[in-house]
From TrEMBL:
It comes from Blautia pseudococcoides. Residues 125-223 form the OmpR/PhoB-type domain. The keyword Endoplasmic reticulum does not apply. This is Stage 0 sporulation protein A homolog. GO terms for cellular component: cytosol; protein-DNA complex.
Amino acid sequence: MKIMIVEDDLSLAREIFLLCRKWDFDTEYIRAFEHVEAEFMRIKPDFVLLDINLPYHDGFYWCEKIRTISNVPVLFLSSREMNADKIMAMASGGDDYMEKPFDSELLLVKIRSMIRRAYEYQKNDREYLADGGYYDSAEGVFTYENQSVELTKSENKIMCALMECRGKVVEREKLMQHLWNTDEFVTDASLTVLVSRLRSKLRDISGGKEIIGTKKGRGYYIL
C-alpha cells in the first residue's frame, strides 16, 4: 500500500513518513502544494493523509479534486477542533478526521482500519506480486503500476490456475485438464500458443519483466 502525505509542516510530514515506513508502508510526502492533484496523479497512492491548512488551497479543496478522479481513503489531519471543520472534511469527500497532536499508535490503528475497510473485498479477488503488480481473478485483469490489461477467457483460466498453485510448477497436463473441465478443449500445441500470448501480454504491461516462468518439459509457474 502506498501512502501520500500532504502536510506543509515538513518536519511533521517527515515524522509521519518515517512512522509509515517503519510500519512497512510505501510512503511519500509532497512539497509542491500548488499542484497537489498533479502530485496525486504522479504518486498514485492507495491512501492519503491530508492537512487542512495548506498554502494556495486548503485540504477541503484538494479532497474534492481527488474525489473527481479517485475513491482512495482520505484521512484528514488537522489542529482544528471545530465540529464545522469535521463536517466540512466529510462533506468534501474525506473518510475520517484526526486532531493534532495525535498518538502515533492511534494513527497506525486508524490507517490500518481504513485500509482494511476500503480494500478487504478487493483483496479477496486479488493476488499481489512482489514487485507491485496484481491479478484480479474476478475481473480477469492484470494490473501493473496502475496500467491494466484484460485477459481473454482462456488466459484468465490459465492465470487463475497458476496463481492457485503459486510457488509451484503447474504441469502442462493439469492446465489442459483445467481448461477441459470448463468446457474448453485445448491441445498441447494450442496451450503453448495460449501461454505464449499470456506471457507476452504480462511482459508488455510490466516493462519487460517476466511474470510466468517455464520449467522445460514440465509446465509453468508464477515468478
